[in-house]
Amino acid sequence: MGDNGDPREEYGITGNPRRGLAMATLSFFAGLTTIAFYGVAGPTFQEALGISGALLGLLLSSPHISKVILRVPFGAWVDDIGARTPILILLAMTIVGIAGLVGTLVLFYPDDFGSHLYVPLLVFGILAGAGSATFSVGIAQTSYWFPEDRQGFAMGAFAGAGNIGPGVFNSLIPVLIGIGGLAIAYSAWLVFMIVVTVLYFAYGANPYYFQLLDRGLDAEKAKGVAEEMGQEVFPAGDTWDSLRESSMNHWTWVLVFLYTVSYGGGFTALTTWYPTYWNLFHDMSLTMAGLFAGVFVVYGSLIRIPGGSLSDRFGGEDVAAVSFAVMVAGAGIATFATGITASFVGMMVLGTGMGIANAAVFELVPKYVPDAVGGASGWIGGIGGAGTLLVLPLLGVFVDVFGEIGYARGFSVIAGLSAACVAVSVALKFVGPDASGAADESAMH
C-alpha cells in the first residue's frame, strides 16, 4: 500500500456506505415513478387516442413490462461490474421514453393526436418503465455496501424511501396537468429524471470491491483490500454465474414466493386496486379515493425502514412470520368490512404487514443466497414484481362473481396467500441455513 497505508488514496477509492445508500435510493425513487407513467392521465389518453378499454389497459401496463423483463438480468449484472453502469443505463432508457412522449405531445397533441400514435406511445411506456428495474440493481448494490448486521436497516431504508416515488407523482402530475397541460407535466417529469441521472453520474459509486477490480486488481486481492475497508458481502461470479447459481439455490424461490405475496401480489396490486375500491365500493370521489390510496402507499413504504431494523434485531424469519400474520389480520378485516372506518383500519393493518414483510424478505437474501446476491435480487424483484398480474385479475373475478360486495370479499385472496407465507416463514426457522448449521454443529459434538 501507499506510505500512509490508506487504500482510498492508493487506489483512488470514492464513496462510502451512507452515500452508496443515498444514491441508490434516489435512483430507485426516480425510476419507480414510471410505473405510474400513463396511469395518472389514463382517461385523458383514452379519450385523445380513441382507444378501447383493453388497449388502454395495455398502455397503462407498458411500464410494468420492462420492469418484469429487466429486473432479473440487470440485478444479476451487478455481481459482474457493480451497480453504477446498470443504473445509468436504466435511467438513460427512461429518459429516452419520457422524451419520446414529450416530443409526441408537443408535435401532435391535441389536434393530431389519434390511434395512429398508439404503437409509439406503447414503446415509450416500455422504455420509461426501465427505471423501475433500478430496484433489483439498487438492492444488490446496497447489500454489498453494508455489513451483514446492518442489511435489514439498509434494505428497509432503500426500499422504504424509494417506493414513495409513484405515490408522490400520482399526486403531483395531475396538478401539473391542470396548470399547464400534458406536455408541461411530462416535461417536468423529464427534467426531474435528467437531474437525478446527472446527480447519480456525479456521486454514485460502486462498493469498494468493484472499484478495486476497475483499478486492475485481481478478484482475490480486491476482496482482501475491500475487507480491510469494511466490506463483508461479495459476489461469487459474473452475471450469468450469479443468475445460474441463484436459480439453482432453492432458497431463492422460497424468497421469491414470500416477496410475490408481500409486494407484487400484495403492496403493488393494492396500490393499483385501492383507488377503484374506495371509489366504487365506498362511493368516494376520485380525489378522496386517490388520497386514501396515497396514504396506503406512503405509509406502507416508510414502515419498511423500521421493518428493516427490526429484521436486523430479531431475525428476518421471525419478523417475516409476524408481519405475514399481520397481513392475514388486515386482509380478514378488509374482507368483511363494509364501513369506511373498518375498511380504513384493515387497509392500514395490511400496509403495516406488507411494508415490514418486504423489508424482512430482503434482509434474508445475503443469508440464504450469499454467493449470488445480485442474481437472487433480480429473480425476487422481477418475478415477485409480476405478482400484480396474477392477483389483480383474481380481485376482479370476485367482483364479477359476487357483485359490489366482491370488492371486499376479494381480500380473502390476500388473506389465504399471507397465511401460506406465515407457514413458510415459520418453517424457515427449522430448515433454513442457520437451522442446518446448528444441526451440523450438534452432530459434531
Automatic annotation (TrEMBL):
One of its GO terms (biological process) is nitrate assimilation. It holds the Pfam family MFS_1. The chain crosses the membrane at residues 21-42, 87-109, 121-140, 152-169, 175-203, 251-274, 286-307, 319-338, 344-365, 377-399, 411-431. This is Nitrate/nitrite transporter. PROSITE patterns: MFS (PS50850). It is a multi-pass membrane protein. Residues 19-436 form the Major facilitator superfamily (MFS) profile domain. It comes from Halalkalicoccus tibetensis. Belongs to the major facilitator superfamily. Nitrate/nitrite porter (TC 2.A.1.8) family.
